[in-house]
């Protein structure tokens, strides 16, 4: 799973083989993890991030 980039404590990455899913990016920080669709940036899954952190993550992905 190659790291796309890091933004502060966040690690943005993708898996090289997920053929049946639309384009997306995974984000981790500590024990928290999220997955965001890229075509129209939207949260696909969240495991532990509070809403204010998800807003920041979404802003980074949109940029």
Layout of helices and strands:
Blueprint (H helix, E strand, L loop, with lengths): L2 E5 L2 E4 L10 E6 L2 E6 L4 E6 L3 H12 L1
Antiparallel strand pairs: 1-2, 2-3, 3-4, 4-5
What's this, in brief?
The protein is α+β, with helices and mostly antiparallel strands and 63 residues long. It is built from one helix and five strands, in the order βββββα.
Question: What does this entry look like structurally?
Answer:
- This protein has 63 residues and is an alpha+beta fold.
- It contains 1 helix and 5 strands; from the N terminus they run βββββα.
- It has a 5-stranded antiparallel sheet with strand order 1-2-3-4-5, covered by helices on one side.
- Strand 3 (24-29) and strand 4 (32-37) form a beta hairpin.
Helical content stands at: 10-25%
Instruction: Please tell me how large the radius of gyration is.
Output: 11 Å
Query: What would the average pLDDT be, to the nearest integer?
Result: 93
Order of helices and strands: EEEEEH
Question: What multimeric state do the chains show?
Answer: single chain
Beta content: 35-45%
Spans where pLDDT lies below 50 across 5 or more residues: none
Widest beta sheet: strand line-up: 1-2-3-4-5
Q: What's the domain count?
A: 1
Number of helices: 1
The end-to-end span amounts to: 22 Å
- Overall SS class: alpha+beta
Shape, per Cα inertia axes:
globular
Largest sheet: 5 strands, antiparallel
Care to count the β-strands? Answer: 5
